[in-house]
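ARCHIVE CARD
Drawer: 12
Card no.: 0347
Subject: one protein chain, sequence and derived structure
Cross-reference: see card 0346
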Amino acid sequence: MLLYLFDLAGIAVFAISGVLAAGHAGLDWLGVLVIASVTAVGGGTLRDLLLDRHPVFWIRDVRYVYVILAATAAGIAWVHFMPLPEHALALADALGLGLFAITGAQIAEERQLPVVIVTLVGTMTGAAGGLVRDVLTAHVPLLLSSGIYGSAAIAGIAAYLLLQAAGVGRRWAFHSGVLVIVALRLGGIYGGWHLPLLRLPA
């Protein structure tokens, strides 16, 4: 139940990040709903396809669709009646990345897959929806930018798995993994943290 609730929370946060990205791109309300939806379900759909979980989660459980609709409506209302906080999109994306990366890792973990596959599936679950969102709104994907993003997901999943191996309860390991991801992502946003860059002469 806890995993399910966190999955719904990730859906809501990523849908809101899609609303904000669509708003910056100047899309109409249908376009906003499309971007919010693909952002919210993109990573989880890829996860389910890779793990052969059929039907995919949002077809199996219509409550995910209702959460997307509610979050999209709330996001539209928010930006119409209240000023948009600075870095709102990046902050929403950081939280969605943290929630989805760890829940994706947990689902892969339940299949008793190797640690490296658990890490890859979790990272793709967290990053794929935002990647599609950025491509559709004609932005350089955050996954490919110089700030900490995919590497934050990998670090958070590693922390989650290591804490469990050390005897920490799954719930506390989950919270710690999400915190690591969000903290690293915020460090990339506000502190300019990034991995070493590869620069070759032209």
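Annotation on reverse: The chain has eight helices and no strands. The helical segments are 2-25, 29-50, 57-60, 63-81, 88-110, 115-136, 150-165, 170-190.
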